[in-house]
Amino acid sequence: MARMSDFSETEQKHHLDKIAELPDFGVTPDVAGPPLAQRRVAIITTAGLHLRSDRPFDSGAADYRVIPGDAPAGDLVMSHLSVNFDRTGFQEDLNVVFPLERLRELAAEGVVGAVADVHYSFMGATQIRALEVKARELAGLLKKDRVDAVLLSPV
Fold first, then answer.
1. Three-state SS for 144?
2. What is the pLDDT of residues 47-79, one digit of tens each?
3. Which of 63, 70, 89, 132 sits between 20 and 30 A of 26, alpha carbons compared?
4. pTM of the complete model
5. Residues of 27-48 as b/e, b for ≥16 C-beta within 10 angstroms?
6. Is residue 89 situated within a structural domain?
């Protein structure tokens, strides 16, 4: 993992300036809902994952890819575009960035109610404000799929 002290002053400033650009969502109250053991859970990752047959993410991509829950791990590839990103963990174990097997285990143990049939991936090295339109679209898809909990896997 890169540390801020590893970067030049110019690169440090660039990364710190990104913080100032983050939107202020204000205070969001907790939302009541059923216990986790009764919730349907989907995964959303920013690992830039997609099926081999899908088009790769472009630099600055603000869209998402759909990942079927039954897609074999060998059919998933990563086109995350960041020079600071180490892909070693993904190459050794998909669950590092897309913990679908762990989520299935939790469902089998009754910790979560069900695993959604479809999951989603964004490309994380993107301007945060550019993601809002597609994030709202994705929220609608999650509602249609009766997903009431999301496991976020930021990469």
1. helix
2. 899 999 999 998 888 899 999 999 998 899 888
3. 63
4. 0.82
5. eeeeeeeeeeeebbbbbbbbbb
6. yes
